[in-house]
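task queued by scheduler; priority normal; single chain, no ligands, no partner chains; default sampling; output format set to structure tokens
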Amino acid sequence: MTVDFPRQPLEGILALSPLCLNDDNSINYEAIRSNVEWLEDQGIHGFIQFATMGQSMAPSEAEFDEVTDVVTDAADDITCVVGASAPNQQEAIRRATYAEDAGADGTMIELPYMIPLQQEWVGDFYRDIDEALGGELSVLVYNYPPATDCDITPETWKNELVDIESVKAVKDSNYATPHYDRILGLSEQINVISPYDCPFWHDSQLGGKGFIGILTWAAPQTMLRFYRECRDGNHHDEWTRRVNRTLAEVWGDVSNLPDAPLVSNSPAVLHSLAEMSDRPAGEVRPPYRRLHDEAEEALIEALQPLRDIERELV
């Protein structure tokens, strides 16, 4: 079964786009535009503006709207997803409807944070968003329990979310196998998007349709080929297995940078990864900050094996 999308599909590599800043912490709109254009030139299938690593919590209403206008204008054939996660339902709906009217293909929305929802409220939250939309925007549900303190269960998916018209895909960051593989079991009803680059080797064998591109910034052609090989069932070819092993080691090191836990430094990591491909990123909006020198050096060293594979391809 193929999921139907009103605009461009949410599948393939969806790269997280950094919130580029000027030295005074104002948003560098032209840098964001140039990054979208670069991703499209590389052949990446889509991007997500305003994910967690892209500082979805950072913009004012006016900044959110202007960034949305910029990225929807910059996107040509590349799938444009604008994150609409917010502390409250009213702002999530405002962001999602603005993105739809601006021409985005999709939106990624996690549950409101600060005060956790009860499980039985989850369906109503996404139904209210669906009712506010005009039928043109695809919703990528983001399950991120560390932020929301509410884990969207497979039962909630089966009993409620799969029946919501605009809900077309899921990014689930609960990696526990008994949970995650049950979500993959829904892959004929929704597109399951791996939460980062590494799990796609596993997920694509169980129906996964794509992955969130993070390491993709440092090795775009490697990740494109890796996606194609996994999509086409070539999981046990020597090259594919080599990349899969490399990704596991690289991500393990990225997750253990010295005195820079990923949970607090994920925007900084995304900025540094983009800069490895000579893309603009700038500062991270306070109170968050860029990696300190030792962590930056460790990140560069961690990515070296993947960058070596990239050099073999280009």
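post-processing summary
- The mean pLDDT is 98.
- The beta strands are 12-17, 46-49, 79-82, 106-110, 138-143, 167-172, 191-194, 210-213.
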